Amino acid sequence: MTDTFVRPDWTPLDLPRAEQSFCVTNGDRFDTTDPTTGEVVASLTASTLEDVAGAVERARAAFGRRGWRNDGQVRCRVLFRYAEALRANRERLAELLTREQGKTLAESRNEIEGSADMVEFYAGLARSTYGRAIPVGDDAHSVILREPLGVVGVITPWNWPVVLLMRALAPALAAGNTVVVKPASLTPAVTVECLALLAADPDLPEGVLTCVLGSGAVVGDALVTNRHVEMIAFTGESGTGINVLKQAANDLRKVSLELGGKSPNIVFADADLDKALDGAVNAAFTTSGQICTAGSRLLLEDSIYEDFLARLTERVRALRLGDPLDPTTQMGPVVSRSQQTSVNGYVELGRAEGKLLVGDDLDDTEALRQGCYVAPAIVTDLPRSSRVVQEEIFGPVLVVQRFSGEAEAIEIAEDSQFGLAAGIWTSDLNRAWRVGRAVSSGTIWINTYHHFYPEAEVGGFRQSGLGRQQGLEGIHEFTETKHLNFDSKSTLF
Ligand code: NDP
Fold it and tell me: Where is the Aldehyde dehydrogenase domain positioned along the sequence (predicted)?
């Protein structure tokens, strides 16, 4: 490990640029910083409360002009071109994403590709938000329509800021809504740069896409409480999501919530253990553990516990931390100093309440000290009630739990306030089916982990969320169902 990272020069971006009129920002200046080096990535202007109100008005007026909401062909073409633009700009956007968020360049490239794929999927669906005709008798006709809602507010987190934006933005637009985006304050530059590609499309009507910037407590709250925002699509922490839901409940507006997790990854003794070992590392440490679906609780069956843990410990110790722009790096920093402090707090608690097997050994180099690095950690022997077992840490900390037999595996997996994802590793498909049916999670991977498809719905049980994104349900969330009934009799009664 070198003492400092040698990186290509960077001139901080000054955003939003003059041509980016889809951003409504007249407030204070703020910077985003690179969690690897602490250098400024971009200087931006925040939105004021008046800006948020103006952005919603602009989106409302665009919805009222009707063209966009009634023309699936235009929406389809605009979104297909957007997917291509994201792909064509992949390298530039991936580098910016890595600088602003800290994930490895390979992960950033995947995120931009995945985003393009998501947009493309919903581009196709923009032409097929079909309703249906219902036979209600000789003298009457009924038609069920799926109509757009109006203005949708999309609020996003910083961990996968592009793909999580696209999985709400693309179906919302495909369904004919107009959208106001409020990105996370730690990753606004990459969001603005991605949105600029869409805003540049000559067929995107004025006001269909608007972006506001600034803190969640002020700008986010102003968007959520604006009664002209017909729906809020929120991705973030469970606590913040619950508040969003309460605010929207005041005037009964629609909310979709994609929230936190503490996902169990269950390895049975009959599994392909080499594959399960790869899966356990990927599940827990991708993006330094900052993934809502992270397999942050590893459940190991008694008979394989010691051996598997020994191999896992060796693998985790060998993970290469470093500059995420360096292609040999396997784990970058966490996103910010405050995230680093919060994760380190859980590591200390794990050490006090259980056994810290790995997690003490961050190379003491200037480069790692300067960045927001956290050594990947494994903690065992914790009581099930420990905060380290129960709470979402959102960092590279893996809790390992031991079980004996299927029933206990299910019981431990279910002992959680969350229900976002789970992994099951076994060669017995009947067992996979039984356990898969018994575990309350929105996504369950069998003999794999962290595979996402735009076609497949995601979402949470319990405090992991409300509603579903992606797939067909993902576009239906952004529509309202309407029944039109025609009577063709000559008299009414
Ligand atoms: P937060 O809940 O802190 O923030 C999410 C977004 O909400 C940010 O844009 C934030 O703005 C904004 N916000 C904060 N307070 C308010 C408010 N009062 N009203 C309206 N908006 C507000 O989450 P993080 O950004 O820290 O993201 C990490 C969390 O997201 C984890 O819990 C993770 O599990 C979850 N997540 C869930 C996913 C899922 O699919 N279920 C996917 C990815 C992440 P600001 O940045 O300015 O604070």
Answer: 27-483
Residues 215 and 92 in one domain: yes
pLDDT computed for residue 492 by the predictor: 78
Nearest atom in ligand 1 to 258's CA:
41
Out of 107, 111, 258, 301, the active site residue is: 258
Q: Is the dihedral of CA 27, 31, 32, 35 positive or negative?
A: negative
pTM: 0.97
Instruction: Sort strands 151-155 and 178-182 into parallel, antiparallel or unpaired.
Output: parallel
33 domain residue, yes or no: yes
Ligand 1 geometric centre to CA of 183 (Å): 9
**Domain span including residue 193:** 13-259+465-481
Portion of the chain with pLDDT greater than 90, in percent? 94
Q: Are residue 318 and residue 422 in the same domain, yes or no?
A: yes
Q: Is 188 in the pocket of ligand 1 (CB under 6 A)?
A: no
Do 19 and 37 lie in a common domain? yes
Query: Element (H or E) spanning 366, and its range?
Result: helix 366-370
Q: String of b and e for 314-345 (b: at least 16 CB within 10 Å)?
A: ebbeebebbbbbbeebbbbbbbbeebbeebbe
Question: Tell me, what's the pLDDT at 462?
Answer: 98
CATH number at residue 356: 3.40.309.10
Residues 6+ apart with CB under 8 A from 306: none
Residues 95 and 28 in one domain: yes
Residues 6+ apart with CB under 8 A from 492: none
